Sequence to fold (756 residues):
Amino acid sequence: MSHELFRRSAADGDRPGERQRVTLADVAEAAGVSTSTASRALHGGAGVSEPLSERVRGAASALGYHVNVSARSLRRGRDQAIGLAVEDFTIPFFGRIVARVERGAHLRGHAVIITVAGSGRSEAESVEPLLSRGVAGIVVTSGTAGAPEGYLADVAERLPVVQVDAVGPSSFSDSIGIDNAAAGRRLTEHLLSYGHREILFLGSGTAASTVVLREKGYAEKMVEIGLVPRSEWLGYDPSQAFDAAVVALEAHPDVTAVVSGVARTTTGLLSALGTLDRRDVAVVAMDDIAGADGFDPPLTVVEQDVEAMGDRAVELLFERIDGAAGPPRHEEVGLRLIPRGSGERGPAHAPTTEGGPARTRHPPAGSPPGDDPATTPA
Amino acid sequence: MSHELFRRSAADGDRPGERQRVTLADVAEAAGVSTSTASRALHGGAGVSEPLSERVRGAASALGYHVNVSARSLRRGRDQAIGLAVEDFTIPFFGRIVARVERGAHLRGHAVIITVAGSGRSEAESVEPLLSRGVAGIVVTSGTAGAPEGYLADVAERLPVVQVDAVGPSSFSDSIGIDNAAAGRRLTEHLLSYGHREILFLGSGTAASTVVLREKGYAEKMVEIGLVPRSEWLGYDPSQAFDAAVVALEAHPDVTAVVSGVARTTTGLLSALGTLDRRDVAVVAMDDIAGADGFDPPLTVVEQDVEAMGDRAVELLFERIDGAAGPPRHEEVGLRLIPRGSGERGPAHAPTTEGGPARTRHPPAGSPPGDDPATTPA
DNA sequence: TGTGACGTTGACAACGTTTGCACACGTCCT
DNA sequence: AGGACGTGTGCAAACGTTGTCAACGTCACA
Fold:
């Protein structure tokens, strides 16, 4: 349509390259109505007769009118945008969240302003730009949310906030995630059902609440059946996970199975297993990762419904934006175990210290009893 | 800190949960100055005496004042935000771009508003929300940029635009990417240097300009030395890449090496090779992918410096925002071949139809002559 | 000591939009 | 036939900020 042509002949204003903006007054004048009527016709909904409304809309599209969001936000006191605070955009998990949040906001006519939370930035520094813009609400997905400054809790008093994935120590806002302890238990039980007893848990570090809870689920399950839980932390840098995993595995030469409690260290762990020539160790991992079925053997994972999490986060947020009252809500999405091979192998060698009975190397095809691949939401 | 306390006693305004906003007038009143002086003291820079300036800053921080960006943008006619249009946030490559663009914008005091370009949304629909907000500039990273509507070209006439990764058919704006044809050539040469002659190129589809150029580089190199180029397109959906790769590979049973021209189909291809029991086929892939060294054998790739691309995109954009004139600039970042094993194997079986001499299965350790692992920027 | 220059400050008018209010119409009821 | 009422429209006042302009006092210089 190249609607700018209409204005192109106007004297080029202040700075070069800057075109005149088409304002509501221009539209109103072209349609022969007042700005109030034009505004109501375009955005106000009812209260304008059909012929006039149509004339206004025609003029608007002919002139190439865009509403000036700054003016609207100023007038309304609230911006039609939401904030999205993410810990690290390079992590695929968060990318999936971003995609769904953007989609949900777009469908509701809201823009999305991104910011980085954590990763060395203070909460204040992350959230300030959002507050200055008067965003209608904020979706936060960061392991460090709400701690230790408590700044986010303050924000949540004035503005709808939804926490995704990791939930702060005290829940001051709506939140959605998974039952991380259940996930840890689930991963562990899967390995137990194939006869493993010497199982090692590997996580990134104790700063991420989700991983800590998964480790807790693992440890509880182990203790519950009289086994000794063992955990090692590989750190947050994926590129160093390999080295850390080598060290951790060498410290536990007798383990026959490993729980990878977080996606970012899983590939490093797999490389380490290959390098140490311990391909016989069974592996189950939290979160599906790209190329999981390209590994040898394909990787067994417990997957969370990330898309559902993102979608629901937006829904929760907009319910609050639309005025829903009530105490903070916490929801959880379902988990799904995807057996691909790496987790469906028995212990290759019996534990060296204990004299337990030898076990078959491979269970019969199919899932062993008591392990249901599909889980319902909590 | 909890600066909201100052205002908490004020009668809770209109809607529950909505606090009074601290305005510049409040700060000015508290400091005993006019709003003009307060504005200058806080944001204007020079022109205010030191004692007054300090008093104003004190009052502002005591009251917990945040500038109202909507009002500022309205007044200034331009928002201190940039737009970031991305094709798909779930693709790791784009995630890395997002992270760097956000970082660069943040350092310069600008917010980032995201939007999805392509993936079924029209360019207008993608960009409109950005224009309405009067963003200072836009970074676009989408294979469909500028085509076929040409809407983006219109936008670029009024606003600084930088295209990242994929460059539109006609370059109407600054852009940064890589030399895709050179990348295709590079991948091909690497396989040729190990003795392969029956080399297949696999890409996603002909809609992405980058992949088309890589295929062009591949094909040119093949023709150049008297070989027949063969290409197959696997489609854009990574989850269907496996099936498509199986079909493609079965259609070319004699190939001894494969060039994977795009990251999104690489893991599907690897799975297909494993399933078809053609693990002897050499593979080199475009773009490093997570867990590349966890595969068996570890994956040889040509990597692009994505972080540098993102950083440079922001620099280019802000140079324009700050008023730099001149014709569109196109820049390219460097490539780096990372040999990990999958691409350093010779052809296992000589071509069935041709009677070429048998070749050694493995070349001597180290890179073969003529293949320099490090490349300088184009 | 008068005058111009300068540095500092305040009053005021925008920026473009939304919205409460008033008003001019018709129409319908009593 | 006269008043009440609803519908459609315009007027004008905000929203919070920045930049222009003039006014003010102070100082240096003639």
Remarks:
- DSSP finds 13 helices and twelve strands in chain B.
